[in-house]
Design brief:
Order of helices and strands: HHH
Helix content: over 70%
Number of strands: 0
Radius of gyration: 12 Å
Strand content: under 5%
Structural class: mainly alpha
Number of domains: 1
Largest sheet: none
Amino acid sequence: MDVTSLLIWGMLFGAAGIGFIVYGRKQKAVIPLLTGIALLVVPYFISSVYVLVITGLVLLAIPYFIRV
């Protein structure tokens, strides 16, 4: 079940990353663009479900709190 959870969470964070990339490119906003790239890349390097979820949620919150 651990591998299945990693796959599902990775797909969810990857989908959110695609959304951030599209938004960042259209609005020419750097923070959402970089956050989207990070959301796409990070699941490849994390092998713990809990660490993946915490890291993904932190990355999802970054554009909300950091406005440039």
